[in-house]
Amino acid sequence: KRVGILISGGGSNMVALAKDMVGDHPGRAKLVIANDPGAGGLLKANALRIPTAVVDHRDFPKDREGFEAELQVVLEEAGIEMIALAGFMRILTPGFTAKWAGRMLNIHPSLLPKYKGLQTHARALEAGDAQHGCSVHEVTADLDDGPILGQARMDVRAGDTPQSLAERLLPLEHQLYPAVLRRYLAGDRTPVMLEG
Ligand code: GRF
């Protein structure tokens, strides 16, 4: 399957996916699309020789559908069949998620269904959770809500801050996402469960 990776920022999850997609991998990253021309991940995609595109959401103020229509054109022109959202920070409309139902994954930095949305690390700390982690799920119309395909969990330590949690979680994300994508592309829906 021709995989497209959507990013908004540094793209470390995109790098982890792209580096895993070599050799006999069932899907190679054919395109990296950023919604921000300044996304650092674009340079990393260049270094990995992956074609890139930018669809700047600021070109479509208050026009989410217009932004997605342009995104769709770019995806179709590249023959993309599967989307991996990786640090992608735009909310997608039900129209777009319906079009890509069963063909779009996302990674979210919490142990879903806990802490959908933003500020997940701070919320886990405020709740006094003993464990924290990340989840990969199928994208549906509802934010951070689709079927969970894998999770990686780790202990919260005394003195942890949102920053220290995020830093310790990122390598787990980089292990989880490629493992889930491989399994998903092989048609296997058994959840990937990792302990950090
Ligand atoms: C990560 O915490 C990821 O879970 C979240 O955005 C952060 C940065 O991701 N979605 P990346 O380095 O841009 O892949």
UniProtKB/TrEMBL annotation:
N(1)-(5-phospho-beta-D-ribosyl)glycinamide binds at G11, S12, N13. The record marks D144 as: Raises pKa of active site His. It catalyses: N(1)-(5-phospho-beta-D-ribosyl)glycinamide + (6R)-10-formyltetrahydrofolate = N(2)-formyl-N(1)-(5-phospho-beta-D-ribosyl)glycinamide + (6S)-5,6,7,8-tetrahydrofolate + H(+). It is an enzyme of class 2 (transferase). Gene3D superfamilies: Formyl transferase, N-terminal domain. It comes from the Bacteria. Catalyzes the transfer of a formyl group from 10-formyltetrahydrofolate to 5-phospho-ribosyl-glycinamide (GAR), producing 5-phospho-ribosyl-N-formylglycinamide (FGAR) and tetrahydrofolate. Belongs to the GART family. This is Phosphoribosylglycinamide formyltransferase.
